Amino acid sequence: MSKFGTADDIRALTARFRGLRSRRLIITGGPGTGKTTLALQLLLALLATRGSDEPVPVMLSIAGWDTTRPHRLEEWVAARLATIYPTLRAFEYGGDAAPAMLAAHGHILPILDGLDELPAPARACSAKEAASASPRPQAALANPTKPAALAKK
Predict the structure, then answer these.
(1) How does pLDDT run across 76-110, given as a tens digit for each residue?
(2) Which one of 49, 70, 127, 140 is at 20 to 30 Å from 63 when CA atoms are compared?
(3) What is the C-alpha to C-alpha distance for residues 90 and 70, in angstroms, rounded to an integer?
């Protein structure tokens, strides 16, 4: 399937994504071709049909990834969750440890947007970390001229 645009196409993509053993996906396309829109449609479809045992899909901009200091994808996801959704740190949800617990235990499906917008060294570093992350599901968006580094494991 190279083109998605209808609700049936999104359902098909969602089913194919769920059928992937690794549940890892790279969405490629040139600037302005709809990678982010497709990822948002996938996110909404995953949410609408999510089982109680499946992770919650969350769109995260990779632009804030600080490649000058080493950290694992799960740590970065936890830090972004704590920043974007401060309520997750509320006492009734587990306090400051809650975002880290959600990320570490696979309750979050990170959908990483903007990999192709990072400078080459930062893109390579973040792509390497995402590819070597624990075998948790994830989706990434990339320009078609730059996805090779993302696909390597």
Answers:
(1) 889 999 999 999 999 988 889 999 999 989 899 98
(2) 49
(3) 27
Q: Which parts of the chain fold into alpha helices (H)? A: 7-19, 35-48, 73-84, 98-104, 120-132, 148-151
Measured at the alpha carbon of residue 14, what is the angle toward residues 10 and 19, in degrees to the nearest 5?
145
Q: E strands within 11-55?
A: 24-28
Query: Distance (Å, rounded) from C-alpha 125 to C-alpha 118?
Result: 10
pLDDT per position as a tens digit, 37-76: 988 999 999 999 999 999 999 999 887 777 777 677 888 8
φ and ψ at residue 122, rounded to 5 degrees? -70, -40
Judge contact between 79 and 25, C-beta under 8 A.
Answer: no
